[in-house]
């Protein structure tokens, strides 16, 4: 079968021929339909800090995976050949206290497909456990591919903030209105009465944020940005929560500056920023948290929201053989929303 393979850090991707896997007991073999290409893939290719270490080279990348059930291992129930499925990528060791508590995607021994072990940039992919698959129903697998990471990671972060956003007096900032931020804006507008404020340095992304539901959109580099944010919040005190998809010193400092007492700052961006943590570094009782991926239950909710509310993003399509072009276009910001390889 064809596979898009990274031989070592920094190399271009090569299209190679590798053996087609077979499904053993409890496993499922899927025929890959579509796989996203995202900035994490650029980070994996370059092996920049912040990504989990690759277990081996060569590596087949691709972690936003959808496809069709092709073969069922002995004992697998609940699926039929030909079923359209999305792949939940949070594969843990399934034995530790973290996995047993329901947060397998946070397992210290995470085996993230396409990140630390072989992923979905290939014609077929072996799924080690059937419960890593979520049925797509009538949702197009090509449309659904970005949901498996971008949509899931965004919803995983949004879900941590939802309990704070139960009335119209609340407000939330989404820092970074790109691929993940767009999902967050749509989730907040669909699930809460909160006021949504989008921050981005690119005018086109700010304009799009307003189109998809943000109440306000500002350039985060403006000199008086904190005052502008507070001006549009209830009692002009600041926001209930901040969701930071950028993660640099400036965005985290701004978040700490504008969040109200008992608010929350949730960090998703992996760009190396930090925030001093001390008594008085934020308003009183502000919660600071990172967020990674989401649970299998979160993924099922993401699929439901896509099917029932149409929450998704536009995609730019590439053939598998054009994966290096897709990565180059992504790096040069030529992809308006999400890139998807079609297999």
UniProtKB/TrEMBL annotation:
EC number: 1.1.1.1
Keywords from the UniProt entry: Metal-binding, Oxidoreductase, Zinc
Coiled-coil regions listed: none
Chemical reaction(s) catalysed: a primary alcohol + NAD(+) = an aldehyde + NADH + H(+); a secondary alcohol + NAD(+) = a ketone + NADH + H(+)
Span of domain Enoyl reductase (ER): 10-341
Top EC category: oxidoreductase
Co-factor requirement: Zn(2+)
InterPro entries xref list: ADH-like_C, ADH-like_N, ADH_Zn_CS, ER, GroES-like_sf, NAD(P)-bd_dom_sf
Gene3D superfamilies associated with the record: Medium-chain alcohol dehydrogenases, catalytic domain, NAD(P)-binding Rossmann-like Domain
Family named by the database record: Belongs to the zinc-containing alcohol dehydrogenase family.
Protein name: alcohol dehydrogenase
């Amino acid at each position: 079968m064809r596979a898009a393979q990274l031989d070592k850090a920094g190399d271009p991707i090569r299209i190679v021929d590798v053996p087609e896997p077979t499904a053993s007991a409890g496993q499922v073999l899927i025929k890959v339909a579509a796989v996203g290409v995202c900035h994490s893939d650029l980070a994996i290719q370059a092996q920049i800090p912040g990504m989990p270490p690759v277990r081996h080279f060569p590596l087949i990348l691709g972690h936003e995976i959808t496809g069709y059930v092709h073969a069922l291992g002995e004992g697998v129930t609940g699926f039929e050949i030909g079923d359209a499925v999305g792949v939940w990528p949070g594969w843990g060791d399934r034995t530790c206290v973290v996995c047993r508590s329901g947060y397998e995607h946070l397992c210290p021994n995470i085996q993230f497909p396409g990140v630390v072990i072989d992923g979905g940039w290939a014609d077929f992919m072996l799924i080690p456990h059937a419960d890593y698959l979520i049925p797509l129903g009538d949702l197009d697998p090509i449309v659904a591919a970005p949901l498996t990471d971008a949509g899931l990671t965004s919803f995983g972060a949004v879900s941590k903030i939802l309990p704070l956003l139960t009335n119209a007096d609340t407000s939330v900032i989404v820092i970074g209105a790109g691929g993940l931020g767009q999902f967050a804006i749509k989730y907040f507008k669909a699930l809460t009465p909160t006021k949504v404020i989008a921050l981005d340095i690119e005018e086109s992304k700010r304009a799009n944020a307003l189109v998809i539901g943000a109440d306000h959109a500002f350039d985060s580099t403006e000199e008086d940005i904190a005052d502008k944010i507070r001006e549009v919040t209830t009692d002009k005190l600041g926001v209930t929560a901040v969701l930071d998809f950028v993660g640099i010193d400036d965005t985290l400092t701004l978040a700490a500056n504008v969040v109200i007492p008992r608010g929350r700052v949730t960090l998703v961006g992996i760009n190396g920023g930090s925030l001093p943590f001390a008594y008085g570094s934020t308003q009183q009782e502000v919660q600071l948290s990172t967020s990674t991926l989401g649970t299998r239950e979160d993924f099922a909710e993401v699929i439901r929201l896509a099917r029932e509310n149409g929450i998704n993003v536009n995609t730019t399509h590439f053939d598998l053989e054009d994966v290096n072009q897709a990565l180059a276009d992504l790096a040069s910001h030529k992809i308006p929303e999400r890139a998807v390889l079609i297999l």
